[in-house]
Amino acid sequence: MIRIGIVGLGFMGYTHFTASAKLRGGKITAIASRDPKKRAGDWTGLKGNFGPPAGKVDLSKVTAHETIDELIADPNVDLVDICLPTGMHESVALKAAAAGKHVFVEKPIAPDLAAADRMVKACEEAGVLLMVGHVLPFFPEFRYLCEATEKKKYGKLRAAHFARVICPPNWREGEDDFVALGGWGADLHIHDTHFISLLCGVPKKVFSRGLLREGLIEHVQSEYVWEDGGPNGNPPVGSVAGGIAARGHDFRHGFEAHFEKATILFSAANMGGEFAEDRPLTVVSQGGQVREPSLKGGEEWFSPFAAELQAAVKGVKEHKAPRTLSGALARDALKVVAAETKSVKAGGKLTTV
């Protein structure tokens, strides 16, 4: 049984705790919080940009620590699950690694590349796993696209485009701390640079145009270049992401991917507080057939996170991080964001990742 300790009891910590009920071969054995109410199981008021608000939880079989150091020292913790603000990821990951504990950290790995490099190096030297929770590949629609690409179900990928756009959020206290989050590049767009790198390999170069605030991405439109170095060659792949949409355009994401034998589309959005899939996962064959395939995965709001945690548990059991959660790949996704930022500053100049 892989024993997991959660540090950071905001909405994402609550999400991980709730998702853990579905785990096979793993369980939450400890949590850490300075808040005595949370240590007593009263998580009322926690809320995020998806799923229901939290309430009271049963901690009768969980050790509630007051400090992170206490949890890391707990002999009944094998894997430290870090759900803290991004700027705290590095310090806690380094402490956990020094204590010989495996590390699972919510995305992004860190707000800047230097911190990400130190985290990867520290975990490698300590001989522990560093896994980063980029949950997108565990959503059924994105999993379908990933598997179709890997297995060449519809032939070779010829071109693709991804979108992830929000209005400036106000759902979490501190969310407007744009710099601490690493801008919308590290906090939002990182989903797509990670998924694209998982799908096609890490790009070699990028050219981007966009808007910067305090030197960080506020909105970006990018095209990626592999120079025939990726598993799919060098297809035209692009993305758009940012946090400048009008209030009421709360969230939109999706993709359009063209293969030799079919086109795969998906689009979903939260507009005016109402969420809808305006284009469910759809496959259009070259012969004109349009269908919506059945998708793998649970229907609960936390199902992708349960699948993600299950992959982390499997990784610890096998002492090998799955590629979807690879710390090195998460660091490389941040490298792509850094190159995009540099390209925007240079007026769209082709920039090496």
Describe this protein's structure.
The protein is α/β, with parallel strands linked by helices. The strands form two sheets. The chain has a nine-stranded mixed sheet with strand order 14-13-12-11-7-10-9-8-15. Strands 3-2-1-4-5-6 form a six-stranded parallel sheet, with helices on both faces.
Described by strand count, sense and barrel closure, the largest sheet is: 9 strands, mixed
Q: Please, what is the oligomeric state?
A: single chain
Beta content comes to 25-35%
Number of helices: 9
Fold blueprint:
Layout (H helix, E strand, L loop, with lengths): L1 E6 L3 H9 L6 E7 L3 H4 L23 E3 L2 H6 L5 E4 L6 H10 L3 E5 L6 H14 L3 E4 L6 H11 L6 E10 L16 H18 L4 E9 L2 E10 L11 E6 L6 E11 L2 E10 L2 E12 L4 E2 L11 H16 L8 H19 L5 E2 L1
Parallel strand pairs: 1-2, 1-4, 2-3, 4-5, 5-6, 7-10
Antiparallel strand pairs: 7-11, 8-9, 8-15, 9-10, 11-12, 12-13, 13-14
Helix pairs in contact: 1-8, 4-5, 5-9, 7-9
Characteristic key phrases:
6-stranded parallel β-sheet, 9-stranded mixed β-sheet, 9 helices, 29% strand, 353 residues, alpha/beta
Short description:
The chain is 30% helix and 29% strand.
